[in-house]
Design brief:
44% of the residues lie in helices and 16% in strands. The chain has 50 residues and is α+β, with helices and mostly antiparallel strands. The relative contact order is 0.25.
Length: 50
C-alpha cells in the first residue's frame, strides 16, 4: 500500500479511532487491514446483507 491514498490521509489528518467499511476484497486484504492495525485503528466491517 506504499503511496496509497490511505497513507496520505493518515499523514495529513492522523489516524481515526475506527475505520468502517464493507467487506469487499480490497478492504479485507492483509495489506489494507495491516496498515490500519499498524496505526492502531480499529476496524469495523458491515455485513453483506446489512
Amino acid at each position: 500500500m506504499r503511496g496509497s491514498a490511505v497513507e496520505e490521509a493518515l499523514q495529513r489528518y492522523g489516524p481515526p479511532d475506527i475505520f468502517n467499511t464493507d467487506q469487499d476484497r480490497q478492504f479485507t486484504s492483509e495489506a489494507f487491514t495491516g496498515l490500519l492495525k499498524a496505526n492502531g485503528i480499529a476496524i469495523s466491517m458491515d455485513g453483506k446483507s446489512c
